[in-house]
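Check these lines:
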Amino acid sequence: METTKPFALRTDRVVGRSSEVKAIQEALVDPTGRTHILYFIGPGGIGKTRLLEETEYLTADWGRGTFLYTGIIDLYHSEFHSVGGIRAAIADGLDPENRHFQAYRERRQRFEAQRAAGVAPEVLKQERRELIRFFLADYNRMAQERRILLRFDTMELVQYESDLVQEVCQIEREAVEVWDWLLEVLAQLEHTVVLLAGRPPAPLRTGLEARCREKEGPVFRAFDLEGLTLEESLAYFEALASLEPRVGEIPGDVRRRIWSYTGGHPIRLSLVIDLALGGREIADLFPAPGREGKPAVGRDEIDEQLMDELVRLPSPVRDMLHYLALARKGLGVELLQHLEPEWSVEQCRDNLGRMRRFTFVKPRPGTDLLFLHDELHELFDRFVMRERQHYRRTYESIAAYCGEKLAQAQDLEGRRTLKTNRLYYELQVDPWEAFWRCYVPWDEEAVRAFDTDLDMRLRDELLRFLRETREAAWVSRRLPRDVVDRDAAVRWVRRHLIRGEHQRAVEIGRRILGSDRDVFRSPDPLYRAALQTASAEVLVYTGTDETEVMGLLDQAIQSLESWQPEGEQDPRTWWQMRVLGRAYNNRGYVHWQAGRNGAAIREYKRAVRYFREADILDEMAETLTNMGFAYARWGHATEAEAFLLDAIELEERLGQEFARGLSLNTLGLAYVFDNAPLQGQRRCEEALVLFEQLEQIRGIGLARNGLGLALRKRAEQWKVGTYSPEDAEGFFGEAVKHLEEAERIFTSEVIEPVRLWETCNEMGSTYCDWGWLLLHQERADEAQGKYDLAVEYLQKSVKVAEEHGFDLCAADSFDDLAQVCADRGAPEPEVERWLDKVRAKIPEEYELTRQGFREIADPVEGWWLALGKLHLGYGVRAMRKATEREVSPEKKDRLLDEATDHYARAVVYLQQYSTDPHVLSVTFKSIYRRLKTVRADRLERLRRRIADFAQEHRVDLDGLLGLLDATLGLEPPVG
């Protein structure tokens, strides 16, 4: 048999299909210019793709330049399982010189830059909506110049979800990206003909028909294709005979038998004729019917004989057929040489060229890749590759090739394609390993990075594999469908969480937890822990009582830490570590929200341990930033700096610019808290530049809040001579400008109450400190104006705090209002009124008793800070009365005793708040400035009073006693 030159038996024009061709013609030249959507539905090999290709002849009939069209967008290829891939195919195909889609492409580039930088999902959601608007605007402008033809093939592969997951999670079609985009966009395209081709059940048919009716403009028609009639099939033979005379030698009765066998499916007709041209006696394959008129040989037997003929072809054709049957993501020169290293590049190219001549081999335009027709894949699966494990080594080799290319790939789109391709081949090798080592980590990273393009491609690849192998026992044994469905359900909670659709995520999570379906009632610890952790994380954002949140997280941690992997190489260990780290990070965040810094840090440390062990860098960087901020608020500057610098280094390596901006801003705050406001200002300015480049509004608001604080703290340094009063006024003015912009952002653009409280509270503190500077300069009227603004903003902050139950924040604002009143010389009862409000907020269990402090499991250290500030203020005011007014000696002693008691309590509470000595430094300086004005004999009496206080209350006041000793010039007592 001559096999080196098989003919490409393909007619130039479609044979038959007159009604379908006529409908396409009418749509193309509709004088009204209306958009037409034609959907061709039929089984594999029926000729759907040929109808799409026929349009190139039809459009040429009316003259080049009358129509614009792209290549066929075939959903067989994974890149078209994302909106970005489809839009790129349309824009690049219609506008390769970028004259019409400039605005869309610029917006797309901006979106990808923001997504890669880790910009907040709520911003990216809005950007994606804007991309639709920009795309449609550019497209419809272009469509006014020439009528546009779009062609989509293999539509049966449009995204879908497991029926079980859809039922329990109630996943709307709108949640599935390509499905939603096609429904939304196709009916909005102007002056366009859209051709869709796919196998039953044609999932988009009903939705598109309804959308076209709603729009009252586009014309929708669906065509159910069947095999060619006998007359059309005989015409097909005649058309081929004009290309190759040997076809004409096939007898008429055999032609009729071939038609009966093939059902008039063009691809099967072509396959039989290809074999005939190769030398096979077609009459042997299609014997005459039996006595009762039934075929002598059944279709399955003929199919098997056909495949036997194909696989008996000599090498290299036989080898190439096997490679094409296995390399379903495309076989090109480079991959072929990887599989056959002894073949030169030229030999590989020649062998691929030889295969192009078979009618059932399809090239992909613009590449050197070849594919088998779907119908051939089905025949190979049924009769040649029934035991996929026999081809494991080839699949392993192709998967390794994809892995090598992935390691070298730099461009985002290339990496997406290679990950999807590698997942396909790894699934053929071992579905269990592929699921846990490829799908789970890659899709988790895609979901977290808001990379919906990659997320949807990976999801579709996995679900398509399971659909195609649903009858394969070895697949169901290795990767039970229940495992995939449970993972998919949890993943939908995660998707909605990342998108900021918190209420939707809560609803799905609760439905899964409450489902009576056996699949979702599974005790599988990895599944239940992942679901509990995701549900808890959502509840954190919805303001749910922390008891429910912590309960879910505790259950997750307990089950995960007791779960035992099956050996050291168990691929599920990575997922165990990721969910454990996330659960502890979420516990830390709950503690931090409540003001429990020590408890938060404890949980963050555990999270970091798991992330480090599994080399999970993205979430580790996030946790390090959280931990750094908790340390900074707690007064531990050294630890805060170390963890934040570690986070920034990781984020630089990962290219997570938005996260790096958050860490830089947090580092700036840490420096400010550590009395280094200039250093802090510089870090916050770096963050602001990043956020402005990314056009990330929330980040801009956070950075401006940080700059407001840093500039106020710099301005305060006029008191110690670091800056002149004029410099200080400039800093105050700059601070106010930043805070005004932050107030605008958190009032109208980013609704985040705690940030609005921060802004208003900081604005009040800024005006208060500015007023004190003006009083010092004897500009009383101006000072009172600033104090009025301070009261206005602090009362705003109180309102925000009270409305949202931020008790600690409200207490802070009350304390600041008391400071304003004291500084501006208000009557003492007015000052005390605000301080009483602070006292009313503080839970009784935080008060010092005669037996020392009560045991509190996870204390809110902020209450001790509030008590420390409160008593320091009491002490300062009592000391002022004693030293700055003319009072009797008895009253002076009484006031000094009162001040000393308050100082002692302030020190004790601040020590309880934080173990870091820097926290007390400002307090000690304040006390020292006042104590040094007291006579030595009185200081000695006060020292004894403090020592007695320490003994009576069972607390450590050695630091304060040491300060008194230094003030008196005494040696500290021995023993």
The chain is about 65% helix and 5% strand. The radius of gyration is 37 Å.
